[in-house]
Structure formats: C-alpha cells, structure tokens
Amino acid sequence: MAKKVEKATIRDATQIHSLINHFANKGEMLPRPLSEIYENIRDYFVIRQSERVIACAALHVNWEDLAEIKSVAVSEDYQKFGLGDLMVDACLKEANELGIKTVFCLTYAPDFFTKCGFILAEKTELPHKVWGECYRCPKFPNCDESALIYKVRKKD
Question: How far apart are CA 77 and CA 59, in angstroms?
C-alpha cells in the first residue's frame, strides 16, 4: 500500500472533492465545493494508490501565526493504516516550515486529533478571522464541530 504523502495537483481536485463529499454526505465532515478545492489546491496533500487519491488533507494559512487543518479524509477501504496520521503530520510539518506557531481544526472527530497532539479549545478562543468562511456553511450559525488547537514546536 502506498504511504507517500505528496502535494496535490490540479488533476487530483475532482477525486479530492469526491472523497470529502462522500464523508460529508454521511454527516462526518463538512462538504467542499469543487471550486473551493481548485482555488485552494496548493493547500492540499494527498496519498495516491496508483492514480487514485485515497487520502487528503489541507493546511490553510489564516494569518502570520495561525493555520487550519481541514478536509482530512481517508477512503474507507484504507482506514486503520495510519494514513490520517500521515496527512496531519504533513500539514504540521509544513506549518513548522512556514513558521506558523498555532494550528487549529474544527472537526466531528476530536478523538482522532487529540491522538495527534491537539488539545480541545473553546471556539470562542479562536480569533474572529477564522470564521471568514463559516457564513457559507449550512450549519451556520449553529456550529456543532469541536475546536482543537496544536502548538507547533520549532524543529531544526
């Protein structure tokens, strides 16, 4: 099984969209429009099995010291092999390389992120600038996701 994390390319966008929205349709994550994935393709990491995208995640920079990990998804037939951990690790590594000190996520799977070193936080602790896309969410203003934060430790 492939375990190589790579930056996504334009050719991955439709597969990323399908993977994310498969879980969104089950209520396990928020949907993403294809246009948003294309606009933010440089945020995404993928793992491919042959030409098939089997895992994805995005690191979206919000400010000089803040970024969000979002859209972490692993195809159901490849779950329980640590691919989600690899996706989060790739995002945290890039945050470190960029000099970002704090990474957050809003999720329906807080246990997964606490296992990755994140800690639960109150949504009200997050700066208002992170809510820029929330008004487009079907659950706005009644967000039922958990907020978690990770403090990036500078690695040489």
Answer: 24
